[in-house]
């Protein structure tokens, strides 16, 4: 097949000749990780590099500037299984500087490239492939929604080729759960440009987890796909660019929204909003002195609410940490001490928890809840001691039994002098070589010491 100019400006900077046709119609979208084999030569045919020499395919992220321009342009046009020859002018390769020591300045290069496969752009927080993006339509700008941005999107969700939802939805980024938007879509939207349309492949940890969705007919641990179009968005104001009073107003808004979610038993959303409020207070600009007391009070209230949410969801370590943040500001905070005590109880540490409840009574002697918790702690401690005592008793009994068995095994290993020497008397073993008496025959383990067998013992 004749070479075709595929350079954007049609300046013959990248010429493509297909050596072997690929399969299907799909080509790798921007951001995907492609896997190829290549052989690079100069115009005279001299080879300067090849992945085939070591039989190790080359991987790179497409359209991310990880390779020369010609590769980003040419590889993006290739189908799976396709083999093509790219002729790359210097401006689309290594330019006037070259790539010493192998590639000289202003060199025209040829690359025979085999497209092996590609996978979507990994948008998952831990880069574990849980959220993959395949762009269908690139966005119109380089700005992306931030946390708290108001987004207007169209979602089409499918499982095993069957569409289970197809709708427009507008929501604040971070509150998607309230609108039935799965976490994987929310995470991905943080990387979308305006008017972008992409396919997302989302594994269960960011979709419907190990529960599934009976309404949609999705089983537990299922991977789903979404076509997501970001129609528009309005970025939220960054806290660092707000004045002190505006910062505190944003914190109050987050805290109030968190409280509303808490009252509706939507603890995961409440936690998200409370954490956001606490983060604004901690990482925002320095608060003016006249507003510091108000900011500290907000931080205390936010962490107390966080601790309560964590207790409700059995996240006891996180609850303890939130209480510690409060106690840094107010070491005698009654609620923080009480909730930290509850967290220690949840962590099966009543001997530590009881100290916090005792501190609560020092702050407020009439706190009957703390008094009851102290009784509960003492009961738990007694139960633990009884359990440990029984455990140790059983342990000692076991050790004693093992020692006894070892002793018996040692005794069994020793020679039995009664059976081996005295219990099997032959005639030659008896004094004088005499025959056994009737008594000796009835009692083979007893040796008559005298020679005449009268049954009398001598020299005793």
From TrEMBL:
<dbReference type="InterPro" id="IPR011990">
    <property type="entry name" value="TPR-like_helical_dom_sf"/>
</dbReference>
<feature type="domain" description="PPIase FKBP-type">
    <location>
        <begin position="148"/>
        <end position="234"/>
    </location>
</feature>
<dbReference type="Pfam" id="PF13181">
    <property type="entry name" value="TPR_8"/>
</dbReference>
<keyword id="KW-0677">Repeat</keyword>
<feature type="domain" description="PPIase FKBP-type">
    <location>
        <begin position="31"/>
        <end position="119"/>
    </location>
</feature>
<keyword id="KW-0802">TPR repeat</keyword>
<dbReference type="InterPro" id="IPR001179">
    <property type="entry name" value="PPIase_FKBP_dom"/>
</dbReference>
<feature type="repeat" description="TPR">
    <location>
        <begin position="334"/>
        <end position="367"/>
    </location>
</feature>
<keyword id="KW-0697">Rotamase</keyword>
<dbReference type="InterPro" id="IPR046357">
    <property type="entry name" value="PPIase_dom_sf"/>
</dbReference>
<keyword id="KW-0413">Isomerase</keyword>
<dbReference type="Pfam" id="PF00254">
    <property type="entry name" value="FKBP_C"/>
</dbReference>
<dbReference type="InterPro" id="IPR019734">
    <property type="entry name" value="TPR_rpt"/>
</dbReference>
<dbReference type="InterPro" id="IPR050754">
    <property type="entry name" value="FKBP4/5/8-like"/>
</dbReference>
<protein>
    <recommendedName>
        <fullName>peptidylprolyl isomerase</fullName>
        <ecNumber>5.2.1.8</ecNumber>
    </recommendedName>
</protein>
